[in-house]
Amino acid sequence: xxxxxxxxxxxxxxxxxxxxxxxxxxxxxxxxxxxxxxxxxxxxxxxxxxxxxxxxxxxxxxxxxxxxxxxxxxxxxxxxxxxxxxxxxxxxxxxxxxxxxxxxxxxxxxxxxxxxxxxxxxxxxxxxxxxxxxxxxxxxxxxxxxxxxxxxxxxxxxxxxxxxxxxxxxxxxxxxxxxxxxxxxxxxxxxxxxxxxxxxxxxxxxxxxxxxxxxxxxxxxxxxxxxxxxxxxxxxxxxxxxxxxxxxxxxxxxxxxxxxxxxxxxxxxxxxxxxxxxxxxxxxxxxxxxxxxxxxxxxxxxxxxxxxxxxxxxx
Length: 315
Known about the structure:
Elements: H1 2-8, E1 11-15, E2 24-28, E3 35-44, E4 48-54, E5 57-62, E6 65-68, H2 75-81, E7 94-99, E8 103-109, E9 114-118, E10 122-136, H3 139-147, E11 152-154, H4 155-168, H5 170-177, H6 181-184, H7 188-205, E12 208-219, H8 222-236, H9 241-272
Parallel strand pairs: 1-3
Antiparallel strand pairs: 2-7, 2-11, 3-6, 4-5, 4-7, 8-10, 9-10, 10-12
Helix pairs in contact: 5-7
């Protein structure tokens, strides 16, 4: 039986990986119980690296090139297996290929506002999002820390962890940049550089190199944005509260007139019947200084100048 198994066994004399598509970071060569032919060839293409693993331990690491597998080209594996100089037999080893291409257009963003310290506003809750790109720089570290013995490890398998790392260091990046929140929009490149610097070490622990980070947008939650708009408005009038109140009033009158006119019309119709269509609103009554209780013929349906003493109820 042992002789038949030996006859049926195939010896692998060419080891290579041709990527069939995007998104694969690590791929294990399918051995299926076969052995590697001594003197066989290993082809590692540009943007790839290969790792030999013997009994769970990382042995030799190969960069781009073509290699003849002998005791001279796989010294660590030779040492681990205690081969002598005359060794020329087929051997077993797990072989993993790693893609070192840049993984582009990976997205990061805050699902909830992140609280940071700001020298102008104190504590600020902001939202931000952008892109980043990375590549495998140390396949040995990546194999040990991330991919392990899986047959295939993809970009999608890693996305959640890397996105969490990016968000974890947003506060650190803002603090390191020293840029006030109001200036972040005009200094997004500096913010992105600080975010990259804050995350580079964490990526390196996984065997990765963080190649680039971009910040596409930085914004406040809606309620804080309204406060910021008011602060900007005060800045436009030089901090003069009187002018600011005039500015606020001017902004509010069109909205008030639009809504108030309808309330006065409803008031007149309830008081004098559905046929009344002369109800005055703040657009042509209140804005001119007229209110109920004051005779203003033609403004309100006052039935010949009769005073109206009740204000309309808002609905």
